[in-house]
Design a protein that fits this description.
There is one protein chain. The chain is an alpha/beta fold. It is 35% helix and 21% strand. It contains eleven helices and 14 strands. A ten-stranded mixed beta sheet has the order 3-4-5-6-9-10-11-12-13-14. A two-stranded parallel sheet has the order 1-2. The chain has a two-stranded antiparallel sheet with strand order 7-8.
């Protein structure tokens, strides 16, 4: 009989599990606190449980605990990139970035990715499997334990398409923001998507206060299809409708991620087209100088081109920033560290 992955259970589910084992519900709250506040990785660490209960739990349940395979630390800004080994040997990446407003962790939601975006290393070997809620949470827990510092902001923008793993993602969100766990504010959580329209709408209906970041990367359907195969299934018009729907249901401003690729989507006409596409929306554009991937021939736009693109959008009334590049001297782009490890 397969064991229950207890770290993926919500508090009510843990309480229910303990009741089914003949225990009082408060035992469930104790165990949940050990797992999600004290960050225990074994039942033996839970000192206020009886030996009999620890043994019964160990026989029935397992605790997800990622193994840190390697850590790269940027000499430029202190960004830390982690390669974690899952229980089945698959590898995932996470990144810790330190800002004035607090520590932000970018986590993966899948081992690999099937979206096929042309400028991304995460998708080169396709999708292996979805991550469980516990595997997503434990990336944050491992980083907190490694640094001894609290994480205040979480971005689900690492390897994988979060909305392609919707159910586990939603459980992860519920547990991350739960007052009995790390209790990170929904407003300090960002979920990225390349435009899975049905699940954008499904997330909107949950009426959460998190930020939705839509990976746009092109102002027209034709250009987007050239960079992002998913655009063939979910056309740009549908993605924009779903984004407007998200805003109408949550009141949360949409962030549009736009990776600037030299000679592909960074010209004055592209900026004008993007401004036209976003006209009238309450949104923010995050311009990303693309991080070159060895297996692709895409190059980063010139600095002057990036600044001109930003200025054009601002003149059209679009709220825009250029993403601060962090960890550039390490394998900073999504999937790079995992890919290099697999090659070795």
């Amino acid at each position: 009989m397969s064991k229950t992955e207890i770290k993926s259970l919500t508090l009510p589910e843990v309480e229910q599990l303990l009741v089914s084992m003949g225990e009082k519900p408060f035992r469930g709250r104790q165990i949940y606190g050990w797992l999600h506040r004290r960050l225990a990785v074994s039942f033996e660490e839970m000192t206020d449980l009886s030996g009999k209960l620890k043994k019964a739990l160990a026989e029935r349940c397992e605790i997800t605990a990622l193994k840190t395979e390697t850590v790269q630390v940027s000499k430029i800004d202190g960004t830390r990139k982690y390669l974690f080994a899952l229980g089945d040997g698959n590898m995932i990446e996470s990144v810790l970035m330190r800002y004035q407003h607090g520590n932000s962790v970018c986590i993966s939601s899948q081992a690999g990715c099937r979206m096929g975006c042309k400028f991304c290393a995460s998708t080169l070997d396709g999708l292996v499997r979805n991550l469980t809620a516990a595997e997503m949470l434990d990336q944050i827990y491992c980083i907190q334990k490694d640094t001894g510092e609290r994480v205040s902001h979480v971005v689900v923008m690492g390897t994988g398409e979060p909305l392609d793993n919707f159910d586990n993602l939603f459980t992860f969100i519920s547990m991350l923001t739960d007052e009995h766990g790390l209790h990170i504010s929904q407003r300090n959580l960002t979920i990225s998507t390349c435009g899975i329209v049905p699940n954008m709408r499904k997330l909107a209906d949950k009426q959460l206060q998190l930020t939705l970041a839509v990976s746009l990367h092109a102002p027209t359907q034709e250009q987007r299809e050239g960079l992002m195969p998913v655009a063939g299934k979910y056309p740009l018009e549908q993605v924009m409708d779903a984004a407007r729907y998200y805003f109408s249901k949550t009141g949360r401003r949409i962030t549009y991620e736009y990776a600037l690729v030299g000679g592909q989507n960074d010209g004055p006409k592209d900026a004008a087209a993007l401004a036209g596409l976003l006209k009238g929306q309450n949104c923010h554009v995050n311009l990303i100088p693309v991080n070159p991937v060895r297996e692709r021939d895409y190059v980063q736009s010139e600095r002057e081109t990036i600044v001109n693109f930003k200025n054009k959008l601002e003149k059209c009334g679009i709220n825009v920033t250029i993403r601060r590049e962090m960890g550039r001297d390490i394998d900073g782009a999504c999937g790079q560290l995992r890919k290099r490890y697999a090659e070795r």
